[in-house]
Predict the structure.
Amino acid sequence: MNHIPALWTVAYDTRTRPLPRLLARTAVRLADFVRALALADHQPFTSL
């Protein structure tokens, strides 16, 4: 998972209000998904 310091702090700090925490967690998950998608594009694919 990506560790984006500013988002990570907001997303997983218990003192943060629920809405900003939810939005930050969503942004962290979205960044992780985009990174995985980009990496999948660069892996070799073989079909038989």
Summary: The mean pLDDT is 82. The two ends are 32 Å apart (CA to CA). Helices lie at 5-12, 18-41. Residues 18-41 form the longest helix (24 residues).
